[in-house]
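Your task
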Amino acid sequence: MTKAPAADQARLLAVQDLDTQLDQLAHRRRTTPELAVVAELDARLADLDAALVMSRTAANDLRRELKKAEADVEQVRSRAQRDQARLDSGAASVKDVQALSAELEHLAHRQTELEEVELEVMERLEAHESALGHEQSAYDDVVAQQVAARAAVEAALAQIDAQVAQVRTERAAAIAGLDAALVALYEKLRTQLSGRGAGRLVGNRCDGCRMELNPSDVHRISSADPDEVVRCEECGRILVRS
């Protein structure tokens, strides 16, 4: 069996407790609730951004449509003004007067139709720009929430990091001077066994795996030399006796 001073084995439990604290802090750092809030806001922001892009594109399409409708109305209005000017000049023949009058009637009807189209496009654009304004406000609100949430994350992580630094300082002091072979075995087992390389023997139970040892193993462990490094028969961890 590996040997290490019984006092070093007892001190190893303090190292294990500190390592457990570090593992718990690492878990807290990965799963702090503030991170979930940021992730949720990021997802909402991505959705809102996609919606804004679509809305802006649709608004631009409507503006082009309105510009064309306005141009169509202006074209008909200009044609009607020219025809009216010819009529008012008195220089047109009777035949031309009849033709111009018919055309003016047609243009008036056409202008009415085009102005209705223009008005319908204007109304659609106005409604769309109103909705776009609400979407932009919602986006800006989530951006503000995201800034606050990221600040909360930084504060939470800074607090955890400060605790980690403190525990690491305590761990360095606790492990200083321990038997090198004992530490090497502990570190190896800790890597293999989910961060827990040593446990206490409490009665007939290993508090590393929470399993009860059979009486013969308990007797063997209890009667072993205090400096012998014994291991749990169930989980393989270093088993430190009281």
Summary: The beta strands are 198-202, 205-206, 230-231, 238-240. Residues 6-26+179-240 form one domain. Residues 94-175 form the longest helix (82 residues).
